[in-house]
Amino acid sequence: MAEAVSLWRREATFLTAMLASETGIVGLNTLFKAATSKGLNSYSFLGYSYLLASLLLLPSHLFSNRSRSLPPLSFSILCKIGLLGLVGSTYVITSYIGVKYSNPTLASAISNITPALTFILAVIFRLFSSTNH
């Protein structure tokens, strides 16, 4: 019985995190459209949102149960981090430029396609296999 309650709490935690994430995305899209229609530069908005996210996530390492030892930082890992940062920031910039020319409702609807595209890319790159259970 205790195991079922633990599983329920874990699933509820994931559901709450997903709902908070989607609510934040919709809120940011709406806030972006309102701010840019009043004259704020889109790159300034991105800088402010990244700064706010950094300040909110900064204390999260205090609550982490991970060990404090890190693996060595190699050139390959630095290149992968840089590529991920480049692709991620390009994705955010292009989505905000799309919101600038359309509306936040369309951006929120299109963002729901992201899990399907992620699954398709995982199948293409063979990261998902039906034999792994």
Automatic annotation (TrEMBL):
Keyword Nucleotide-binding: no
Pfam families xref list: EamA
MF terms in GO: transmembrane transporter activity
Keyword Membrane part of the UniProt annotation: yes
Keywords, alphabetical: Membrane, Transmembrane, Transmembrane helix
Residues passing through the membrane, by range: 44-63, 75-97, 109-128
GO cellular component: membrane
Span of domain EamA: 25-125
Broad class of the protein's primary localization: membrane
Membrane topology of this protein: Multi-pass membrane protein
Subcellular location, record wording: Membrane
Cited SUPFAM superfamilies: Multidrug resistance efflux transporter EmrE (SSF103481)
Family to which the UniProt record says this protein belongs: Belongs to the drug/metabolite transporter (DMT) superfamily. Plant drug/metabolite exporter (P-DME) (TC 2.A.7.4) family.
Name this protein carries in UniProt: WAT1-related protein
Species per Swiss-Prot/TrEMBL record: Brassica cretica
The organism's taxonomic lineage, starting at the top: Eukaryota, Viridiplantae, Streptophyta, Embryophyta, Tracheophyta
